[in-house]
Amino acid sequence: MSQGYHKNSAENKPSMGSLEPRRIASQIQSSPFDKISLNAEQMQAVLTSSPAGIGIVTGQILGWANENLYAMLGYEYDSLNGKNIQILFPSQWEYEKILATLTKGMEKYGVGMVETRISGKDGLSFDCQIRSSFMDRQAPEKGAVVVITDTSELKSLQIQLQQAQKMEAIGVLAGGISHDFNNILMGIQGHLSLMRINVNAAEKISSHIHQIGKLVNTAAELTGRLLGFARGGKYQTQILNINEVVELTLKMFKPSRKDILIHESFEKELHLVEGDLSQIEQVLLNILINASQAMVETGEIFVNTQNLFIQERHQYPFDVNPGRYIMISIKDTGIGMDTHTQKKIFDPFFSTKKIGDHKGRGLGLSTVFGIVKNHSGFITVTSKKGQGSVFNICLPASNNLPVKDLKKNTPSS
Ligand SMILES: Nc1ncnc2c1ncn2[C@@H]1O[C@H](COP(=O)(O)OP(=O)(O)OP(=O)(O)O)[C@@H](O)[C@H]1O
Ligand SMILES: [Mg+2]
Q: Is 200 helix (H, G, I), strand (E, B) or coil?
């Protein structure tokens, strides 16, 4: 939350001011750096023809807005003039959170930016990016220009990419798991052969049937977990106990690499998190697969969860909202990375994995980055060449309390 901003205090609310397009034009005209000066009509034409929705806001009241903003929202042109912009947001709480983020960005960097969902006249919400800047940074009361871009198409492409990447991750796991599956089938076959021999001994047959039943259950659990993870479709935010998510993911990962020793330690009273189960599993799985691929022969992975409180004055070299978080730490004893590699690992298509060994597409960590960012979290990495790596995933704790028992809601658990 930005400095000087308090949720329930009207006086302290950041004010986004409003100015007529004419005023903007005159400000631009008077700028000593401008080579081209625009008159009011030209300025109006530029604003009207912009593909983005542009509005001017004073003290949370929308003044002028271009036609595209009205088209995007489904309102009749000019019908929102003088209305409080809160009507575009699903809740007062959501609105205040967004307002605080934008104000913080404007005060700190000159531009506020947030990715969120806003609702149109029909009540349906869509994904968008909002950018805002004060008309006059020295006098915020003069208002702000707000630029809204519809990102729903981009979001849908991102989801498709995540789904494709998830299938790749399953492909990597399947290699190890198919071995397990084969063992199960061999076991079933063994019991069937013994049943044929002992065809008249009822007791023995019942014991073989029991064993076959157990093996079938194990196989069903294995496929169920993969199918549950592979499911695509709608992403759903729910309240999650990350300890359970880690356990579920490890159950899926472990059979694929039995040569790796995995150590787990969980914080007992871990804060709850709002998130999408399948996406968080994907984050963990991608990092676990990378850790396993970083092992030359065999090695160890340490998975740990803990609560975290980030102070207003924190040590992170990037912008982080203070507050309660949970941290999942995944440490491996693999080959590690030099600083040059570390700087690039989240770039899409960056991979050091060669053909022959495993052809890396370089999409695992960029997907992780996107998902963690969408959950308003962040990720840090520490590593040294030859000395393993640690990935810390931090996600904000939820303030909503009802807990779903994931184990009951996950296929074949
Ligand atoms: N635990 C790790 N230890 C050492 N290097 C790592 C580790 N995790 C990631 N890296 C480095 O980061 C690069 C990018 O990882 P990323 O998961 O995005 O792609 P990839 O694993 O190469 O390919 P893909 O995940 O698409 O199969 C890797 O190629 C590797 O160089
Ligand atoms: Mg990878």
A: coil
The dihedral built from the CA positions of residue 41, 46, 51 and 56, taken in this order, carries a sign that is negative
Residues in contact with 120: Cβ distance below 8 Å, sequence separation at least 6, in sequence order: 72, 73, 74, 75, 126
Instruction: Catalogue all structural domains in the chain, each as residue range(s) with its CATH number.
Output: 21-150 (3.30.450.20), 157-409 (3.30.565.10)
Instruction: Write out pLDDT tens, residues 78-120.
Output: 999 999 999 999 888 889 989 999 999 999 889 999 999 999 9
**Which residue has the least CA distance to atom 25 on ligand 1?**
364
340: Cβ contacts below 8 Å, ≥ 6 apart: none
Two structure tokens written together for 374: 């969408």
Alpha helices in 137-276 (DSSP H): 152-197, 202-230, 242-253
Note the pTM of the prediction, 2 decimals.
0.73
Residue 339 pLDDT > 90: yes
C-alpha of residue 307 to centroid of ligand 1, in Å: 27
Query: Ligand 2: distance of its center to the CA of 253 in Å?
Result: 14
**Dihedral over Cα of 398, 404, 406, 410: its sign:** negative
Which pLDDT value is given to residue 388?
A: 97
Nearest ligand 1 atom to alpha carbon 336: 4
Nearest-ligand number for the alpha carbon of 351: 1
| Binding-site residues, ligand 1, Cβ < 6 A | 286, 290-291, 294, 332, 334-337, 341, 345, 350-353, 360-366, 389
**Atom of ligand 1 at shortest range from CA of 332:** 1
* Ligand 2: centre distance to CA 227 (Å): 21
Which pLDDT score, from 0 to 100, does residue 355 have?
56
> In angstroms, rounded to a whole number, what is the distance separating the alpha carbons of residues 172 and 228?
16
- Nearest Cα residue to atom 4 of ligand 1: 336
**273-288: average pLDDT:** 94
Measure the CA–CA gap between 387 and 226, rounded to whole angstroms. 32
pLDDT given at position 7: 29
* Residue 286 Cα to ligand 1 middle (Å): 9
Contact (Cβ atoms closer than 8 angstroms) between residue 58 and residue 18: yes
Pocket probe mutation, ligand 1, options 346, 353, 390, 391, max atoms within 8 Å of Cβ: 353
